Amino acid sequence: MSAPALVEARNLSLHFKVTQGALRRAVGTVKAVDNVSFDIVEGETLGLVGESGCGKSSTGRVLLRLAKPTSGQVRFVGQDLGRLSPSELRRARRQMQMIFQSPFTSLNPRLTVEQTLREPLEIHGLGSNSDREARVQELLALVGLDPGAACLRPHEFSGGQRQRIGIARALATGPRFVVADEPISALDVSIRAQIVNLMLDLKARLGLTYLLIAHDLGMVRHMSDRVAVMYLGRMVEIAECDDLFDHPGHPYTKALLSAIPPSDPDAARDRVVLEGDLPSPLNPPSGCRFRTRCPMATELCALEEPLLRVLGSGPAHRVACHHA
Predict the structure, then answer these.
(1) Domains, the chain, ranges and CATH?
(2) Model confidence over 240-254: pLDDT tens digits?
(3) Neighbouring residues of 297: CB distance < 8 A, sequence distance ≥ 6
(4) Is 245 left (phi over 0), alpha (psi -120 to 50) or beta?
């Protein structure tokens, strides 16, 4: 890609110790994110998909330094976030924000909309009181809400309106990079398209870069420029959006895509049904973590962990599979 990388993740890991008993004795380690490397190009939307518990949200939180990585490096505009002082990290965070999954739990019920939107401006010392008041009005209009609603509290809004407030809060400091963690999954089906279209419009108007974490593969295809697939903390495939949907290389990706309901219910399709249960992240399989559910697995898959390698469909299409 010709555009520069805004976010670079290199060998990124986030592990959690599991303890037991009154003495909190360590009994294992959950590798939520395990040695993941990828770039997010400025101006693009990178979709991140996979089953629940595969490490998508943990990856997003580590990129924003909301969770400290166990190992690895995150660079934002060339800066290593792990080497920044607390004051430098706070300044960097003005450029990196998050849209949370649930609009019902991510907004403080005691604060009015104006207080919610003013808070990030006050934390970062942006503008005078009159500037902040004007910015609140501007943000509400930007996300399609009546500026007169600034005096109301979250319970006086619908779920879709609350998510618009959450989006406005994420945009308050004028960020370049936004992590959207399942931004429509908690909303009614009837208003999901409105939020998707709002996010696309904001991206075009403000030049935003998104990491879109989602289960809804239809939304991912509609919004994303590239798509990355995770399984048990590892990245198993990453490609241009259309290339991944039209020519999936990893058997796990093929299974995910085969579960998308067809637009024509009478059309023939090859449904890939995975055998067995998702392995425990406390004790993942040796070698390829997908091998216990993979119809293509061989002895090599148990002995050697596959690395992301370029497929013949293009240099941007990489797959971690011995048999792809």
Answers:
(1) 5-95+175-319 (3.40.50.300)
(2) 999 999 999 999 999
(3) 288, 290, 291
(4) alpha
